[in-house]
Amino acid sequence: MSDLLPLDLTLLNGFEYACRPDCGLCCYAEPRAEPAERARLLQIAPRVEFARRGGSTFLRARPDGGACQFLAANRCGAWSARPGPCRQFPVTVHVGDRLQASLVLSCPGIDLACLAVVSPWEERAAPRGFAAEVRTAMGRITPAVARTVDEARRRRRRLRSALTETGQWADEEEVRAELRASLPFPTAADFPVPEPPAVGEGIAQLPLFFDGRPGPVALAEGRDGWAFLEVRPGGGAEPLAEVPPADQLPELTVEGRRLLQGYLRYFLERDALFGTVVAELEPGEERTVTDEMRSELRAIGALVLARAETLRRALRGASGPLTGADVVGGIRACDQDLLDRPTWGDRL
Ligand code: SF4
Ligand code: SF4
User: CA quadruple 139, 145, 150, 154: dihedral positive or negative?
Assistant: First the structure.
């Protein structure tokens, strides 16, 4: 455990993980690289390129949404020198008024079967396969992270005071208790969901997921619906298929429903969700924090179902109610995107 701040690991319980060496999905990214990490990378690749943004330095991706410079045949060419974010993935840490670890469920190395289990996360078995990733995350808790926590706490206090004055505020645990007891679930009114960005906005903006092909697939807004693109590590993408968007609530098998409920229960426990919802809520609106959390969870569920349905029709040519495997596909195609939204804190 970090000497500076404790890291809450509850949301890792019950999960098992083993990286899939043929995947490379998490390498379509620009990981942050600290000075000592940059020095190690320069030792093995003197011409490696970095990018500066917002006071931090990142390993620059190849142009047009391509993968990291070190990705070759879906393997890392700098394994021993890869920076902290690569060593920590798929563990993600929300830096809010506390440090809370959760998992990027887009990673196909994580078995999602435990989402269907209903017992509280605290009571589940210890996670398996994440020891090195958790150690890395703990090692990245520096004094700068502690300062970000202080800033997030100040922001939370300001928002709490403004929203209390207008009668919109409720504390995290109060909201969670209410929504655990009556879990929001998408309905017909939540469809259709917004389409993903268009290809013209850049492949880096598009949802990426792993579908068992070499490298990831991107989802984009096409001319007649949702387009699937095979992403090339060097940049650019080839069209795979295009289908009209799912414009009504798809049917679910019992297993599919259980998995989606489990995913929504998981999301409800993430500090990132509360941080995103509250940061977006304007004082004086008629909606309360609880209303907003409820509609956000329904929207997340609808997005998973829409992507699961579209993915199944476009890439698997299947029909009928969405199965557990279909819902897993939808979750993987959404989770990274949903975690990327701004909150009142930051991410490690
Ligand atoms: S996304 Fe997960 S399975 Fe794929 S390479 Fe990254 S860690 Fe491994
Ligand atoms: S350094 Fe290696 S692990 Fe990290 S993004 Fe690049 S290829 Fe992937």
Answer: negative
Candidate of 22, 25, 26, 27 to mutate for ligand 2, largest count of ligand atoms within 8 Å of Cβ: 27
- In this structure, are 303 and 217 located in the same domain? no
Q: Mark whether 233 and 275 lie in a shared domain.
A: no
Q: Whose CA is nearest to atom 2 of ligand 1?
A: 107
Sign of the CA dihedral running 334, 340, 346, 348: positive
Question: What is the per-residue pLDDT across 288-338, written as a single tens digit (0 to 9) for each?
Answer: 999 999 999 999 999 999 999 999 988 888 888 999 999 999 999 999 999
What domain count does the chain have? 3
Same domain for 21 and 136?
A: yes
Q: What is the pTM of this model?
A: 0.94
Provide the domain limits for residue 55.
Answer: 7-143
User: For 174-227, how does the pLDDT look when each residue is reduced to its tens digit (9 = 90+)?
Assistant: 999 999 999 999 999 999 999 999 988 888 889 999 988 888 999 999 888 899
Instruction: Please give the distance, rounded to the nearest whole angstrom, from the Cα atom of residue 71 to the centre of ligand 2.
Output: 6
What residues contact 330, with CB distance under 8 A and at least 6 apart? 303, 304, 305, 306, 307, 308, 309, 311, 322
Does ligand 1 lie within 6 Å of residue 107's CB atom?
Answer: yes
> Are the C-beta atoms of 341 and 271 separated by less than 8 Å?
no
Shared domain for 285 and 227, answered yes or no, is: no
Residues with Cβ within 8 Å of 312's Cβ and at least 6 positions away in sequence, in order, are 318, 322, 326, 329
CA distances from 180 to 125, 188, 261, 292 (A): 21, 21, 10, 15
